[in-house]
Amino acid sequence: MLTTFSGHGNKVNGAEISPDGGRIVIASDDKTAQVLDVATGETLTTFSGHWDKVNGAHFSSDGGRIVTASDDKTAQVWDAASVKDLVKLAGHEGGVLSATFSHDDARIVTTSADKTSRVWDATTGESLTTLAGDDGVFISDFSADGKRIVTTSWDSAVVRVRDAGTGKSLVVLSGHELGGTGAQFGPDGTRVVTWSTKDKTARVWDIRASLNPATPLLGNR
After folding, report:
1. Which residues pair with 196 in a beta bridge?
2. Per-residue DSSP letter, 92
3. CA angle, 164 as apex, 57 and 61 as ends, to 5°?
4. Cut 0.85: pTM above it
5. What is the pLDDT of residues 167-191, one digit of tens each?
6. CA distance 62 to 64
7. Tell me, what's the pLDDT at 212?
8. What is the mean pLDDT of the chain?
């Protein structure tokens, strides 16, 4: 172990290292997110604009911005250095569980307890697309080219690959026995890794050959 980071007054919900490796952002139930120096553990900045717990925090690919997701039904985009609140993403009817930049930093995808994901303009805060149809959205992730989004559900074992522009479901990945599933695209967007906190498996899927159904390449081994 290299460093222990402490200082939040409540449960830590997520942490991410900055693209340059020098900072870490931590989200907490204490309604804040903090950026700390990886080498020293020193708290550099604290983001305290939410009025409910912060469920996640992520850097933009250039490290200049941070997006936070909160149970106050909003996500916030911040200047990572000055702590300035740049834009608020408001429109979900339930708590926002996650928020992630696209690889070009132009858009943000959020997931919510209202059973939808939304795609937003990261600069203006405009809601671009609503992705509905999941039982309860847990995680969303952009493909590297920004054309697709993968969404997962905690209420069922279904994972969906969607068109990022229209929200249309392109691929349904079903095979996990229970909900509580996460997912992430591989670097070239042709494979998806899924994992379940309940059935104790991880799977890799190839989505090139046939959009629906897709075939698991690697199951529980």
Report:
1. 181
2. -
3. 40
4. yes
5. 888 888 887 776 667 889 999 888 9
6. 6
7. 46
8. 86
**Coil/strand/helix, residue 52:** coil
**CB atoms inside a 10 Å sphere around CB 181:** 27
**Rg of the Cα trace of the chain?**
17
**Residue 15 structure tokens:** 């942490």
Query: Residues 21-45: what's their mean pLDDT?
Result: 93
- Asked whether the predicted pLDDT for residue 72 surpasses 80, the reply is yes
CB 170 within 8 A of CB 161: yes
Q: Which residues pair with 173 in a beta bridge?
A: 159
Contacts made by residues 144-149, CB under 8 angstroms, sequence distance 24+: 144/103, 144/185, 144/187, 144/188, 144/189, 145/103, 145/189, 146/102, 146/103, 146/104, 146/106, 146/107, 147/189, 148/185, 148/189, 149/109, 149/117, 149/119
**Residue located via tokens 């943000």:** 108
Least confident stretch, 35-44, 158-167, 179-188: 179-188
Name every residue whose Cβ is closer than 8 Å to that of residue 211 and which is 6 or more positions away in sequence. Answer: 161, 170, 171
